[in-house]
Every structure is written in C-alpha cells, then in structure tokens.
Automatic annotation (TrEMBL):
This is BRCT domain-containing protein. SMART domains: BRCT. InterPro entries: BRCT_dom (IPR001357), BRCT_dom_sf (IPR036420). Residues 118-194 form the BRCT domain.
Length: 204
C-alpha cells in the first residue's frame, strides 16, 4: 500500500485539512477521479472521511463545484496525484495504466463489502422523518458502529439522515450550515462496506 500524500490543503471548520487528488474504485466497480478534502484518516482501519468533488467517473454523477460528503476505503485508492488535472488524465487511461492495481483491489476477499468491526466511525448523525420503530432501529445500527446520534442540527453534525417525513426546518438548517443530507440506505451501506454512496445509482 502506497502512502497517501497531499500537495495542498484547505481550511475546514477552522482547521487546515489535506486535499488529495485520487483515482478510486468503489465496491460496485465504479472507477472515478476525485478531489477529496480529508478531515479524518484512520490508517489502521483503512478509512478516510471528508468532502469531495467527483472530477470524472464511469457512472457517478459529477459533483461540479458543490462538494459532497464521502467516506472511502483507503485500500480502494488506485493512485494519488499532485493535481486534479493529473487525476483526470489518469482516469482516461486507467484501464490500461492501472490494470494490475484494479485487479488487485477486486481480488481482495472483502472487496464486495465487509462489515467492519464496531466503533470504526466517530460521525455525529441526526435522524429525522422516520417512524419511531425505524428510528430506533437506525439509531441502534449507527451506535453499534460507533456513531453519536443526536436530536438537533448544528454545525458539528456530520450528516442529517432524512426519512420520507423529514421536517423542512431541520433540512433547511442543515443546508444553511453545509451539513450533508443522506438517506437511510446510504447509512446502512456505510456500516456494511465503509463507503457512503453519493447516489442511488451506486446502490443498485
């Protein structure tokens, strides 16, 4: 496994965080070039959390100028680049230049999803718009993975998980604070695979 290196940084919630330009293969086999501002890396558990812009992809929607939250597996990073232009160029030739690395990732026994040990995640999550039973089940799932479940929306919240009856006030406040909105399917896959899908196309 190569060392992750960042050639630049940005300020996130008052702290300097590294920015990585990477080629990435997710557990659905989707190849993409990403620009990721990572605010937490756990090398021992092969996990990284942050915000990203998808530069190029086989099937993911491009993020454009609006970063989205991401949780990714370091062991599924194909390569790291100094600039996002280099990452985009490498994406165009990835099947040729990185055939061995792609095959190495796909041949890993845990490639298609491996439930990670408890207490891997330190996210703060709020659930809204769910029935009492569904909320209790999701809370148990999140807490079993080490997440802290809260009832209110604040700037320190990592994401707001919205059900079909999510309240507009919480969603509006989350948008104003830049807190990502996710669905329960994304939370479930995060716990199971270590990745938080950005879109429903990744979950199909």
């Amino acid at each position: 496994m190569f060392d992750l290196h960042a050639s630049e940084s940005i300020r996130y919630q008052g702290t300097e965080v590294p920015v990585f330009n990477i080629l990435y293969l997710n557990n659905k086999g989707v190849l993409s070039a990403k620009r990721v501002a990572v605010y937490h890396i756990n090398q021992d558990r092969n996990l990284a959390y942050g915000h990203q812009v998808t530069i190029a992809s086989d099937s993911e929607p491009l993020s454009g100028e609006y970063p989205t939250f991401i949780s990714l597996r370091i062991d599924r990073v194909i390569d790291v680049f100094d600039t996002h232009e280099e990452a985009e160029q490498a994406f165009e030739q990835a099947e040729t230049l990185y055939a061995d690395r792609i095959q190495q990732i796909k041949s890993d026994p845990g490639y298609h999803g491996r439930k990670l040990p408890p207490k891997d995640y330190s996210f703060k999550v709020c659930f809204t718009g769910f029935t009492k039973a569904d909320k209790a089940e999701l809370t148990e799932l999140a807490e079993s993975a080490g997440m802290k479940v809260v009832t209110g929306v604040s700037a320190s919240l990592d994401f707001l998980c919205c059900g079909d009856n999510a309240g507009w006030s919480k969603m509006k406040k989350a948008n104003e604070l830049g807190v990502p909105l996710v669905r329960h399917e994304q939370i479930r896959l995060l716990v199971e695979t270590g990745e938080l899908p950005e879109s429903y196309s990744e979950m199909s």
